[in-house]
Write a structure and sequence with these properties.
Elements: E1 3-6, H1 14-28, E2 31-34, H2 47-58, E3 64-67, E4 84-88, H3 92-102, H4 106-115, H5 124-127, H6 131-136, H7 161-164, H8 168-171, H9 177-190, E5 191-195, H10 200-210, H11 212-215, H12 218-225, H13 242-249, H14 253-277
Parallel strand pairs: 1-3, 1-4, 2-3, 4-5
Helix pairs in contact: 9-14, 10-14
Protein name: Heparan sulfate 2-O-sulfotransferase pipe
Membrane topology: Single-pass type II membrane protein
Family: Belongs to the sulfotransferase 3 family.
């Protein structure tokens, strides 16, 4: 299938990549499709929902790129033509801090009120909570317990979930060895590229050379117009001390291992390209 499927992880800088793909679509002649804005992000689907989404993506006019907040869907097992999978990852602790403040941002709360007008909004005390106090006080929201289940629909501490899949038993327990190994195998066997903005030039180079039909010219656009690319940053996010980050990292051991695994794989892809063609990036 001549379709890129970006099953984007929240809070990894995906808006920047989407804006880059939007500009590349005009240059490289493909159509960029995005999921309709959902009222709530539901990333874990049932078998029928997975099949429906896979068939909808397969029916897109090609060449196409499709973007959706959703866990990995195995098109092959569903007997649907397989797309070109891509994704991005981010340091898990930085990501969970970003999500903590994003969920409290005024524009996010305003959208929540529009989407769910009959549901009472959060208490002012919750909105004003800061991450450091949350961790120091042992609040449930910031108490990352290994093998704990999903706390609520907005519990986005599991980056591995987007690569592990839709099994509650195998993929939902937080920081579990099982979810880690499944996610690693999926990345290795299914994903063309899993990038990271921590390694921006490496990511752009690998995208350009592994998926040239879609990403040719990515370097030039990014470095020429990066100031105009969407980033979805939160100016209200305060500084978090390294002490608190270290305390949280102790509970994210396997999530961190997965993140480093993806970065190592990305750098191996980049090194292979340099050895083959003497790239100067």
């Amino acid at each position: 299938m001549d379709t890129v499927f970006f099953n984007r992880v929240p809070k990894v800088g995906s808006e920047t990549l989407i804006e880059l793909m939007k500009q590349l679509s005009d240059i490289n002649g493909f159509t960029l499709f995005r999921e309709k804005q959902p009222k709530a992000i539901l990333v874990t689907l049932g078998p029928i929902q997975q099949l429906q989404l896979a068939e909808d993506i397969a029916d897109l006019e090609q060449p196409a790129a499709y973007v959706h907040h959703v866990n990995f869907i195995n098109f092959t097992h569903l007997e649907v033509p397989r797309p070109i999978y891509i994704n991005m990852v981010r340091d898990p602790v930085e990501r969970v801090i970003s999500w903590f403040y994003y969920a409290r941002a005024p524009w996010v709360q305003a959208q929540r009120q529009r989407n769910f007008p009959s549901v009472p909004g959060p208490k002012v005390q919750w909105l004003k909570k800061d991450f450091e106090s949350c961790v120091r006080n042992g609040d449930k929201e910031c108490n990352y317990i290994e093998n704990s289940d999903l706390e609520h629909v907005s519990d986005h501490r599991r980056q591995t979930l987007f690569f592990c899949g839709h099994s509650r038993k195998d993929c939902m327990p937080f920081n579990s060895e099982r979810a880690l190994q499944i996610a690693k195998r999926t990345v290795e066997s299914e994903y063309a590229v899993v990038g990271s903005w921590t390694d921006v030039n490496v990511t752009l180079t690998v995208l350009e050379h592994y998926i040239p039909k879609f990403f040719k010219g990515a370097h030039q656009i990014y470095h020429t117009e990066s100031g105009g690319l969407a980033s979805n940053t939160n100016p209200l996010k305060p500084h978090v001390s390294e002490e608190i980050k270290a305390r949280v990292r102790a509970n994210f051991s396997r999530e961190i291992e997965f993140y480093e695994f993806c970065r190592q794989r990305l750098h191996k892809q980049y090194l292979a390209l340099r050895l083959d063609s003497n790239l100067n990036y």
